[in-house]
Design brief:
Layout: H1 29-42, E1 50-54, H2 62-65, E2 69-72, H3 78-88, E3 93-99, H4 100-106, H5 108-117, E4 122-127, E5 130-131, E6 137-138, H6 162-169, E7 173-178, H7 182-194, E8 199-204, H8 216-219, E9 236-238, H9 255-267, E10 274-281, H10 288-295, H11 320-330
Parallel strand pairs: 1-2, 1-3, 3-4, 4-8, 7-8, 9-10
Antiparallel strand pairs: 5-6, 7-10
Bound molecules: iron/sulfur cluster.
Iron/sulfur cluster is lined by residues 23-24, 27, 29, 58, 128, 132-133, 207-210.
């Protein structure tokens, strides 16, 4: 859905708060925060029409630092809060932020069922493979056999593949960013906000305090040198620079299946080469709001947020009998 440009002249600083930020020095969270602020500013999203929901974890503090509406919710529960807000007011631009433990551990049920609905939201996962806020335990994205400095023994769980999980759950925009490449991440976030449907961005976000393996230097390949040039060989590369096409143009003729295979293949690349960029975009599938509109024809004109909930005398004006009668008529 297109966003109307606000008449008010806003600057980037208008999207920042002066709340003290106590993330560790060098944390990848800073780059994600900056990317979110810049994306909102460059799209000129009116601040009263933007809201950020977070779960629990270091990332959970993000809404405190962005000068739009912000709700710091419960561990793993940010998605259902956000879905409720968006469905009540389909004019809101809703962003959800959370860590990999929050979204893919305790919140994984909501992660999957949100994909089935395809509500128009943007979900950003800060992926550092550890639970930073609680001293670096292994999170669902830490690979099998890895031993970060915070673990006494190597990890004996296998890792979740966030990109593949988002795809099979039904997310219609799937991307990966890198927190130290703010310009690139900001562009991905802008496209995700403008996407019609549920967007997911997996952000590789080094935690310099507890994850001493997937560090900034590791992502930039400083531990290996190109024998020809004598320079480090970065692990991260951009999909768009290799001619990758994420868009689904047609739901028939086997195109969707081909795109799914392409996404799964790319999602498995890790180690020597790690792709970032947009993996998948499908605007052919209806959003949840459109599905509601098919049942309640005036949903967009008269969403819950515009409806009166009480009479002038302050009494509830909910008429359950009338509501049930309406539902049975509409649903046949
Ligand atoms: Fe960032 Fe890790 Fe510190 Fe949390 S513990 S603020 S993720 S560096």
């Amino acid at each position: 859905m297109a966003i109307k440009i606000d008449e008010i002249k806003l600057t980037l600083n208008d999207y920042k708060t002066d709340v003290h930020n106590d993330w560790c020095p060098g944390c990848g969270d800073f780059g994600i925060l900056q990317s979110v602020q810049m994306a909102l500013f460059e799209l000129r999203v009116p601040r009263h029409k933007a809201v950020i929901f977070s779960g629990i974890g270091c990332s959970g503090k993000t809404p405190h630092f962005v000068n739009v509406y912000g709700i710091h919710t419960l561990h793993g529960r940010a998605l259902p809060f956000a879905i409720g807000a968006r469905l009540a007011n389909p004019e809101l631009n809703v962003i959800i932020v959370g860590g990999d433990g929050d979204g893919l551990g305790i919140g994984v049920g909501h992660f999957v069922s949100s994909g089935r609905r395809n509500v128009n939201l943007t979900y950003i996962v800060y992926n550092n493979a550890v639970y930073g806020l609680t001293k670096g335990q292994a999170s669902p994205t830490l690979k099998l056999g890895m031993k970060t400095k915070s673990l006494p023994k190597p990890n004996i769980n296998d890792a979740v593949n966030p990109i593949a999980l988002a795809l099979v759950s039904g997310y219609t925009f799937i991307a990966r960013g890198y927190s130290y490449d703010v310009k690139h991440l900001k562009e991905i976030i802008k496209k995700a906000i403008l996407h019609k449907g549920l967007s997911f961005i997996d952000v590789l976000q080094p935690c310099p305090t507890y994850n001493d393996i997937n560090t900034k230097d590791w992502y930039m390949g400083k531990d290996r040198v190109d024998p020809k040039t004598g320079k480090p060989m970065p692990r991260i590369y951009k999909l768009e620079e290799e001619g990758y096409d994420p868009y689904v143009y047609n739901l028939d003729d086997g195109e969707l299946e081909k795109k799914w295979i392409q996404v799964i293949e790319k999602s498995l690349e890790w180690g020597d080469r790690i792709p970032v960029g947009i993996f998948y975009v499908n605007e052919m599938t209806s959003s949840y709001e459109e599905r509601i509109r098919d049942v309640i024809s005036d949903y967009f004109e008269n969403p819950p947020v515009k409806q009166r909930i009480s009479t002038d005398g302050g009494l509830s004006n909910v008429n359950l009998e009338r509501m049930l009668a309406e539902f049975s008529t509409r649903l046949g």
